[in-house]
Amino acid sequence: MLQGPYGSLDRDRPLIRLPFTSFAVGTVLLPLTGLIACLFISLVYHFEDATYTHCQVANYLPSISAAISRVPERYIWRCCIGLHSAPRYLVAAAYFNFYYGRFAKSLPELLLSVLALICSLSENTGLLLLTYVSSTETYSIHKNGFIVFIASSLLHMLITCRLWQVIRRHYVNPEVNRVLYSLFHFIFDDQKHCDSDSSSVGWQASPTHTHTHTHFCKGSFTPLLNLAIIRGQCST
């Protein structure tokens, strides 16, 4: 056996320890931090360009697409989303393994688990697509990525609500059930029975605001659209 500075004990020792809670919080905060930074820079340096619309109506805030399509905003947003997306693919696979272990003998829930995995992957892919293809470059691809992102987010949230309700109902261990109940409340905004109204209202309001602003040229609808998107994403 070779002796050196990296013996068996040192080699097997982890180089760094990172609590999963801190890892999850950091991953979630990346898009929020990037969005706030992009909106701030757009308001300060690119206000006229970022709030310009074909209708020539007043806007107080730039749309998210406009805020992330200019320099240096686009690079800040792409860095944040790139760092945010890689762990989400891993978490999607980890959640599927967890569901598979619980529902291996239950076909309906197993199919829902597969659908949840597909929605999670498509949601993340849609987010990457609308991030790295800005609206000023190829608008159709950016728009389709946005549609995939919203639809997958809403469907994934509803499926997750259903799966966790089944998990809670079949756990008979009071201690485990208590832990899952606390986690369940933490994930779904401390609501009593996984009420998805807050996030679904946010996502449903997004196309409404977009259609109203685009086709009827209503002023000041971009801030409402931004709030609807942020509310829906934070809820999911």
From TrEMBL:
It is a multi-pass membrane protein. It is found in: Golgi apparatus membrane. Residues 20-177 form the CWH43-like N-terminal domain. One of its GO terms (biological process) is GPI anchor biosynthetic process. It holds the Pfam family Frag1. GO terms for cellular component: endoplasmic reticulum membrane; Golgi membrane. The chain crosses the membrane at residues 20-45, 110-133, 145-164. Keywords: Golgi apparatus, GPI-anchor biosynthesis, Membrane, Transmembrane, Transmembrane helix. InterPro entries: CWH43_N, PGAP2. Involved in the fatty acid remodeling steps of GPI-anchor maturation where the unsaturated acyl chain at sn-2 of inositol phosphate is replaced by a saturated stearoyl chain. May catalyze the second step of the fatty acid remodeling, by reacylating a lyso-GPI intermediate at sn-2 of inositol phosphate by a saturated chain. The fatty acid remodeling steps is critical for the integration of GPI-APs into lipid rafts. Belongs to the PGAP2 family. This is Acyltransferase PGAP2. It comes from Takifugu rubripes.
